[in-house]
Design brief:
Order of helices and strands: EEEHEHEHEHEHEHEHHEHH
Largest sheet: 8 strands, parallel
Low-confidence stretches: none
Structural class: alpha/beta
CATH architecture: Alpha-Beta Barrel
Strand content: 15-25%
Number of domains: 1
CATH superfamily: NADP-dependent oxidoreductase domain
Distance between the termini: 39 Å
Shape: globular
Helix content: 25-40%
Length: 280
């Protein structure tokens, strides 16, 4: 049972990753970003997720530095993720992109490095680079993002080291049940981006009804549903009250009936690009 913000899932290589984190997608460089990261760490978050394409790694790094100082914690108590962008996929170019991200973040190592999208003909070379970084101890865990089952199967044919994480769009309108069960079977931890569907499902009557029953917000109900499904979750927010509120999900448990009711909202509906059909 996940009881606190610092509770972790153990990845296949023994590395511990907090179940709950802060995402910073579309948060621009500047004081708001630095403050969001610092605030999250202050209130107990230990998992911070960014990516090269977000163009905010410098601010995230500053927020981490200030947050650690304010919370009196050391680097090894945090779990920091970044991702290599499509334009940099390739063996040498991925190694270079990693160093750039590390420098911007101002860190000596990353806890998790991901291939951001499964660009055909490119992700296998990039994966070799991630394996090199992993073996060199520059990153504690490696994984992928937006990979469907067939992408994972294709990668597993050549991978020396199995992806430890698959971070995908996942929310009650896109429950990804088949992918979840495949990842469970293969000991790949599933992680949800856009768990609140960019706010588009916060007014759903079915979810509001469940939220009232538990005296919680719809966002808290969804995030709890993720955790009970064994999914790592990284909701994005820059507002202090929301950062605190999002993480207030450890004092209740959704019943099997309510879990099933949320599962039933699935419509295979994406707010982000389709991993089988993107052109960037």
């Amino acid at each position: 049972m996940i009881k606190t913000l610092q509770d972790t899932t153990t990845l296949q290589n023994g590395v511990k990753m907090p179940w709950f984190g802060l995402g910073v997608f579309k948060v621009e460089e500047g004081p708001e970003l630095v403050n969001a990261v610092k605030t999250a760490i202050k209130y107990g978050y230990r998992n911070i997720d960014t990516a090269a394409i977000y163009e905010n790694e410098t601010g995230v790094g500053e927020g981490i530095k200030e947050g650690m100082k304010a919370a009196g914690i050391s680097r090894n108590e945090l779990f920091v993720t970044s991702k290599v962008w499509n334009a940099d996929l390739g063996y040498e170019s991925t190694l270079k992109a990693f160093e750039t991200s590390l420098n911007k973040l101002g860190l000596d190592y990353l806890d998790l490095y991901l291939i951001h999208w499964p660009v055909a003909e490119k992700y296998k070379d990039a994966w070799r680079a991630l394996e090199t970084l992993y073996k060199a101890g520059k990153v504690k865990a490696i994984g992928v993002s937006n990979f469907q089952i067939h992408h994972l199967e294709d990668l597993l044919k050549v991978a020396e080291i199995k992806p430890m994480i698959n971070q995908v769009e996942l929310h009650p309108r896109l429950t990804q049940k088949e992918l979840l069960s495949y990842c469970l079977k293969n000991n790949i931890q599933l992680e949800a981006w856009s768990p609140l569907m960019q706010g588009q499902i916060l007014e759903l009557p079915e979810l509001k009804k469940i939220a009232e029953k538990y005296n919680k917000t719809v966002a808290q109900i969804i995030l709890r549903w993720d955790l009970q499904n064994g999914i790592v979750v990284i909701p994005k927010s820059t507002k202090e009250h929301r950062i605190i509120e999002n993480a207030d999900v450890f004092d209740f448990t959704l019943s099997d009936v309510d879990m099933a009711a949320i599962d039933a909202l699935d419509q295979h509906h994406r707010v982000g690009p389709d991993p089988d059909n993107f052109d960037f």
